[in-house]
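Late entry, written up from scratch paper. The run itself happened at the end of the previous shift, but nothing got recorded in the book at the time, so transcribing now.
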Amino acid sequence: MKSVFLTIALLMLSVVLAAGITYHYQMEQPVLLEKELGTVIRLNGTQSYSKPGEPDLPYFGYSLLLPESHEAVSVNIRREGPVVYQLKAIVAPAQRQYPFSHDIIEEKDKPNPEIYSSHEVYPKSPAKGLTTEFLSGHPIAFGAFTPFEYYPQSNELVFYKSIVVELDHEPGLRAMEATKLLKNDAFTARRLKQSVDNQSAVPTYRSVRTNGIEYLMI
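Output as recorded:
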């Protein structure tokens, strides 16, 4: 019964305390290379999340510090400054990855016809994944976005130079539980600044720890 009341109270509190974070990303210029399988796209700081046979568009991973006891609930990716490329070759399909010890030459993954013959934009949403993890009790939202749109039928690639991540967050049970492990000290602040994009959101602490006692070993 106590847990039921706690859940109801948390839901009511989340309605009141729901808030958002907005963070801007400026993309570097991509490099387009014509290879055997099609146009390969290179963009610093990105990686591939595409399944074999899908257009291999780069995705940029983000990590944003949230307020204490909050969790990410939704994200909106706003893209600005479009640059259109008329490609000669299709965007190369993503390939299955094998370990170095795999010495058999496998057949290349072919383009997925459902995607490459479609008149619709790919992908339908620029966002991929959204989760909240914790570093010393501090919640961090992780996700990824692609600054590209691909139109298979016209073979047009659109690159957006500016990306705005609009993240909604609210109090959550996991985040509240994580506050039991919360550390507010200079060492934790340094780790947070190395882990998140919105470094200005990291609190500033003195070298003296507030949780526990620091010892000088001689």
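The longest strand covers residues 70-86.
(Scratch paper discarded after transcription.)
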